[in-house]
Amino acid sequence: MFIAFEGIEGSGKSTQSRLLAKTLKNRGFEVVYSREPGGCALGDDLRKILLDSKNKDLDQRSELFMYLAARAQHVKDKIMPAVRDNKIIIVDRFNDSTIAYQGYGRGLDTDFVYQLCDFACYGLWPDITIVLDMPVEIGIKRARLRNEFYKKNNMDESRFEQEELKFHERVREGYLDLQKRYNERIVIIDATGSVEEIGSSILSVLKERLGLEV
Ligand code: TYD
After folding, report:
1. What is the pLDDT, as a whole number, of residue 60?
2. Any ligand 1 atom below 6 A from CB of 160
């Protein structure tokens, strides 16, 4: 079972995806947890370049191909083996991030980006993609607070938080649009509630859609 988490900055994906991994492990499931960009050595190296605010002038197409390069390696090294071994694989961000950010956000042709994603992931799409949705103002505020903390600890992952609000609005709209187009795979969950409320909505969706009894 392959589960992906998606959403704008500060929507709580990392919290919820980790919480789900922990809950499932406690119930005895074999779980592999990963994130993008990252999840493998090449992905981690590319992540540093992609998220460093020093790289302001990164060309849109270079950016796109770095995310895709990270994805192909991640799928080959980590996701495919987990699926083959019948484990549950949970990933914080996957193809829909590329379509939402590089397609809807940056303005690259979304259908073309979709096809490139399909190629990069070897056609291996998640069984379910959970989009945590919330107004952009709330998410960005949360992400900025987090990044101030990171900066104090000499970690800079703020390149995307510095984009204008309109960019993030386009990303959010992108996710909502993708859900309409691929509603058999993508589920939107309201991410403005408490961690517990959102966590239990996610478990209900997994039960309903995939028959996962937790
Ligand atoms: P991440 O730390 O995952 O952000 P967050 O903590 O908000 O989840 O950083 C990933 C950043 O990279 C995020 O700003 C979204 C962006 N991104 C893309 O633009 N395209 C992609 O394909 C992926 C995977 C991420």
Report:
1. 96
2. yes
